[in-house]
Design a protein that fits this description.
Strands 1, 2, 3, 4, 5, 6, 7, 8 and 9 form a nine-stranded mixed beta sheet that branches. With 351 residues, the protein is an alpha/beta fold. The radius of gyration is 22 Å and the shape is globular. β1, α2 and β2 form a beta-alpha-beta unit. The chain has a single domain (34-103, 154-350), classed as TIM Barrel. The protein is built from eleven helices and nine strands. α2 (74-82) runs parallel beside α4 (156-162) and α5 (178-189) runs parallel beside α7. Residues 323-351 are annotated as: Disordered.
Length: 351
């Protein structure tokens, strides 16, 4: 009996040693380069995400503004790139006259002084709207972002002009694959070298799958495919085998779940890169709150220094300059206002 117990202990020790060596991050090749920030909707107004549902008007839940940029505008895209974003995420919205606007919501009623579905309006009608009309930080007592003529709803062409050499992550809000056909046609007509630049496409699986066929070398993913990759890797990554769902796919790693990913970060990165995959680190998961990107500069310290994948930045206005101070293009008064806003956010998140 003692002999069998001894053999069992030896085999267990050997198995533990083998698994440790297979998944040892420090034995993996050193990742090349540093982390790459994805600016969610460019420079945006940050909102209280707790309890937000699909139809919640987030423009009525914003923090006290510390800048006058509006999400998804050409001005905010360019600024995001200037202050440290390596990629900018934008939302596309086809119009009634066959053009493409850049706008997040399905309806116009929340953020603008218009009403109805975005897709039922022409581009000229959308361009005439005040897209800062609905933003309030005090439950409607004031609307500090109304009336800015600099911030019309942008066209796809303006987005491409703002970011001619910066990768864009295009978000499909619809399940209609015809929107992928329209976007692909517009990109090709504009001479956008999607695959060479490293553009990405995500959203509903149907239009994403269509983009994958139209641009086979482009980064394409959906929430469903990323969830499958992450879950499969947590279950099977200990074997050293990269699940099929991760090959050429996208792995999303919440900040507080990094410990669950075998070989994190170097070995995980090496496995994904070997098979043409991508990794995105997001903010921590919170009950009753949609998954967001990073909101605080100190969250960078929770990510290993060797990590060289993508990081989803909810607030590029503060995170970009925090990660790369040499790229801080904000004026002194903007920096001071940003710091004051961060202190208020820290207090709110701590409550």
């Amino acid at each position: 009996m003692k002999r069998w117990l001894g053999r069992g202990a030896l085999l267990a020790a050997i198995a533990f040693l083998v698994l440790t060596m297979i998944n040892a991050s420090w034995l993996a090749p050193d990742p090349i380069g540093g982390p790459k920030l994805i600016a969610h909707r460019g420079v945006a107004q940050i909102y209280y995400a707790s309890g937000v549902g699909r139809d919640t008007c987030t423009a009525t839940r914003i923090e006290e503004p510390v800048h006058d940029y509006l999400e998804n505008t050409a001005r905010s895209m360019l600024k995001a790139q200037q202050i440290g974003a390596q990629m900018v995420e934008i939302d596309i919205a086809p119009t009634a006259d066959g053009e493409i606007a850049v706008f997040h919501d399905w309806m116009l009623d929340c953020r603008t002084n218009g009403s109805g579905e975005v897709r039922e309006a022409t581009l000229d009608e959308l361009r005439a709207l005040d897209i800062g009309y609905g933003y309030t930080a005090d439950q409607g007592e004031s609307f500090p972002l109304r009336g800015s003529e600099r911030q019309q709803m942008p066209t796809l062409a303006e987005a491409l002009e703002a970011l001619p050499r910066t990768p864009i992550m295009f978000n499909f809000k619809s399940a209609d694959p015809a929107e992928a056909d329209l976007l692909a046609a517009k990109l090709r007509a504009a001479g956008r070298e999607v695959e060479k630049l490293g553009d990405g496409f995500y959203g509903h699986p149907a239009p994403v799958a269509r983009m994958a066929r139209l641009f086979p070398a482009a980064w394409t993913w959906s929430t469903e495919s990323a969830r499958a990759c992450s879950q499969d890797y947590v279950l099977y990554g200990w074997t050293g085998y990269l699940p099929q769902s991760c090959r050429g796919g996208t792995m999303v790693v919440p900040l507080d779940d990094q410990w669950m990913f075998w070989g994190w970060p170097n070995r995980t990165l090496a496995r994904m890169q070997e098979h043409g995959g991508h990794i995105i680190v997001t903010g921590p998961r919170e009950e009753g709150t949609p998954n967001q990107g990073l909101l605080l500069p100190e969250q960078f310290t929770q990510i290993p220094s060797t990590y060289s994948g993508h990081i989803w930045a909810e607030d590029i206005w503060t995170l970009g300059p925090a990660l790369r101070p040499s790229m801080d293009r904000r004026r002194p008064n903007e920096q001071q206002a940003a710091q004051a806003g961060l202190e208020q956010r820290r207090q709110r998140l701590a409550d």
